[in-house]
Each structure stands twice: as structure tokens, then as C-alpha cells.
Amino acid sequence: MINRFQSCQKNTRKSQLHLNIGCLKDNSQKGRFLFGLLLLLGFVALTKSEASETETIYSVHDYSSAENIVLAKGNKRDYENNSQINPSFTQSRSESMPNRFKVSLIQDEEGWGKKERANALEKLKLGGVSKPTQYETKNIFSCGNIPAPSLRSITEMMQKQYSLAEQSLHFEPQDNQIRGKLVIFVFSEKKEFATFSRTVLQKRPDANSDSTYSSNGDDPYLAVTAEKIKMNYTLNAYESALVATILLERKANAAPSWVKIGFRESIANRSVPSYGQKSRQQVRKLLASKKKEEKIGLKDAWSGEGVNQVVLAGSVIEYLAFYAKVPKIKSKTKGKKGKKSDEPENKNEITGPLFSAFLSAYNRSEDRPNPTDMDAITAINYTSESLEKVWRSWAIK
């Protein structure tokens, strides 16, 4: 009886042992499965985290406008390599964005940031614009009461002209370059622009004026009235090229009005091909006149009037800023053998770009207390006759 009971106990123990071993095997398989599943979930979470920080860093919207337009989408690499993609001031809905990146979207390297944008918007509100739209590029912060798509189009055109002007002016560290961004106020109607000028800018606009600007100080600005065409607002190339005038005055404020007009026209020509083509055709037509009393030349660029002066001045300045080279003027015949020297008669050492030397010649000095156009021409080793000859040859092509 005892043996039988002991035998049953042994059998029961063996059964329990087999059962426990089986359970352990099942648990081990489940454990491996769960462990693998956890690893997979962890890898997916890590991948998503890395993607959120390197691929979908931000999606910027213009929440101030009814259209809620996406102004820019980008990633960390885009932001670091292309400052044009930064519409800094606007909001971001990327919750996983690193804190330092949130800061970089509202504060530039130049130190121009949230405070300045708020000041510009506050000025608009003082002028009666309660819900302004705004847009931003590398060098420009624009705001106004026109629809966001139109404001964006105008601002991007001005940024293109700003970049062209900056490139041709060759700013040096000692120059009065804009530190931060140029603020541009854009209005849909002339009466709104006039109200803003009087109440906020403390300027009394002319009856025919639809723009005003200040190139001085730490807060340069431009206020303009956009033209409505169908459902869009726009500016023509010459009007938007006022940004070039502002930069020129920062570089060489002493330059005469014809140089400022010409530089503005030259930037308009180069930024909008269709506008430039019409302008150059008009210049060729003016220069083609064979009547002696109607002969058009260099003098009409700096002392002419109206549209003719604008296109002629633009042509001369475009040549000087983008095409002209320092001439080699040979001296008069010397000695019995009649040899000529390769050195120019009025040789001036020009170490930098020719156009910069031309602009610098308008600055007053002890030698030139009242510099003239001839002083500027001579400073780049030209005479009025030689400059007219090479400019005409280039302009009529």
C-alpha cells in the first residue's frame, strides 16, 4: 500500500516536473517574443524621435491671415544651409522642435528679433491696421493690410532686388550696412498710406506720393502703396527697387540724385527681365537719333528730365556697376622714337571694385570739398569722352 502510494507520489512529482518544464519553455518563448517586441517598439520610437529632429523640424504658418498659408516647411539641415527659408517671426506647430531651434526662429544672429517685429506691428496698429499680415525673408520684414499671398510676392521680389543691390555695392566692414532687417509697410490704398505717414511716421506726404522711406539710423524703413490688379496687389519693378536706393544711401549718401535714380533703375532692369528689356530698347532708340540738335548722350543721364533721364541714368549706372573695367589710357607720344607708355595719364590706384571707387569719389575731402560728376569719372580713370564712347558701344548692342 505504501509502495503504491509512494509510486503515485513519484508519478505525480514527475508529472508536475514535466508540467513546470513545459511552462518554463512556454514562458521563455513568450519572454523572447515580448523582449523582441519591446526592442522593435523602442527602435520605432527612436527613429521617429530622430526624424522629428532632423527631417520635420518646423512647419511655419501665417496665422494672422484668413488664408492660413503655409509659408515654409523645412528641416534642420535646410535651416542651417539656407537662411532664405527662415520666416523667423511666425509661429511653429512642431512640438518636438528643440528649444534652441525655437529661439533661432524668433531671434536672428544679427540680434534683430521679436522686439523689432512687435514694434513694426504696433506702428501699423497705431496707423489703423488692426489685423496686419506679415512676411519675412533673409533681409526684409514686411507687414501691411494687403492679403498674405500678395505681400509674400512683393516681399520676395524686394528680397531679390535687395540681394542684387547688396552684391553690386560691395559693402565693407566700415560701411553703414543695415544691421538686422529692413522693415517695409505695404498698404492697399493711398489714403491709408497717407494716414500712416502723418500719424506714425510724422511725415506729410506729397499729393502725388505713394511711398516714403528712411535710410538713416538703426531702423530704416520703407512705406509703399501697392497697386490692385484684379484680386491681387503688386508693385512694378521700379517702385519695389526703392530698397536699392536705401542701400545705396547707406553706402554713399553723398551720391547725386541721378546716381540714385540710375542705380534704382539698373536694379529694376536686372531683377525683372521684361522690364529691363523695355528700358534698354528705349535707351537704344534715344541713342539712335542722328540729328545733331537731338543727340542724346551722357549729359542727359545726369542733367535730363522725366522718363528719358531715368532710363539713361539707369543704363549708365548699370554699365558702371556690372560691366565697366578700369581703362588703360596711354600717355602722349614721348621722345624721338615716338614710343607710347602703357600707363594711363590720370592713373588712380583702384584696389576694389570700380563702382565702389566711383561712389567714394563723391565723398567730401580736403582735396575735393565739393566733388562733381567729373571728379567721380576721373577717379576711375575715365574722361567724359571715353566713358561716353564705351557706354554707347555697350548700350546699343
What does it look like?
- This protein has 397 residues and is of the alpha+beta class.
- It has two domains: 109-251, Glutaredoxin, CATH 3.40.30; 259-395, no CATH class.
- Helices cover 52% and strands 10% of the residues.
- The protein has 15 helices and ten strands.
- The protein has helices spanning 2-54, 76-81, 99-106, 114-126, 148-169, 190-199, 237-240, 242-251, 257-271, 273-287, 298-303, 306-322, 354-360, 373-379, 384-395; strands spanning 58-61, 70-74, 91-92, 133-136, 140-144, 182-187, 211-214, 221-225, 227-229, 232-234.
- The strands form three sheets. The protein has a five-stranded mixed beta sheet, sandwiched between helices.
- Helix 5 links the parallel strand 5 (140-144) and strand 6.
- Helix 9 crosses helix 12 (306-322) and helix 10 crosses helix 12.
- It is globular, with a radius of gyration of 35 Å.
- The termini are far apart.
CATH class of the largest domain: Alpha Beta
Count of separate structural domains: 2
Binned strand content:
5-15%
CA radius of gyration is 35 Å
Q: Report the helical percentage.
A: 40-55%
CATH topology of the largest domain: Glutaredoxin
SSE order, one letter for each helix or strand:
HEEHEHHEEHEHEEEEHHHHHHHHH
Strand arrangement within the widest β-sheet reads 4-5-6-8-7
